[in-house]
Amino acid sequence: MKLGKVRLISLWHICPLRNPFQKWREKATQECPCGYYNHPEKECTCPPGAVQKYLNKISGPLLDRIDLHVEVTPVPFSELSNKNNVGEDSASIRQRVIQAREIQTERYKDTPGMYANAQMSSKQLRHICAINQAGEALLKKAMERLNLSARAYDRILKVSRTIADLAASTDIKAEHLAEAIQYRSLDREGWAG
Predict the structure, then answer these.
(1) pTM for the structure as a whole
(2) C-alpha–C-alpha distance, residues 157 and 147, integer Å
(3) Which of 64, 81, 85, 135 holds its CA 20 to 30 A away from the CA of 18?
């Protein structure tokens, strides 16, 4: 995946493919075969143990390579149609993203072929993603409690650096780390109940 190439092997033939993994590392999955695990209104119809068995098909090393794990539940119509529920508008979000990309472009201007935080090496990570003692304590606690891998540690630092960039913060603060840790929900032991 790191090289942006995939090689599919079957009993009948080998098929090398070029895949856009360098740009998008995205995986969508349901949490169970019926699709209603953790649904706010519908009940999961899967037999006991089926959810965990289904989720175990997703390997840990694959999950480690996915930066953001976000559980998305259906939004009720009443919330969608509520005119008083006004969040941040798309134009503002777009502007913050453009500014964050400009920050990253400036940060990596002397590194050929590198333009985003996701591309940092482990060596660069230690320098660019320096965190204070409070951040170190928070990350250490998360690593121990959630039993996270070294790769997940690197992902958390990269994502927290991006969150800080979106907030136009030169330093990675504890709240940036906390948000990045929340995006590792699939790493949590027993997340399927």
Answers:
(1) 0.73
(2) 16
(3) 64
Beta strands in the chain (DSSP E): 5-9, 14-18
Residue 75 is given by DSSP the state P
* Helix and strand counts by DSSP (H, E) for the chain: 8, 2
Q: What is the pLDDT along the chain (193 residues), one digit of tens a residue?
A: 455 554 444 444 444 444 444 444 444 556 677 878 777 788 888 887 877 777 677 667 777 777 777 777 777 788 877 777 777 888 999 999 999 999 999 999 999 989 999 999 988 998 999 999 999 999 999 999 988 888 889 999 999 999 999 999 999 999 999 999 998 876 655 444 4
Give 44-71 as a 3 state SS string: CCCCCCHHHHHHCCCCHHHHHCCCCECC
Residue with tokens 């209603």: 36
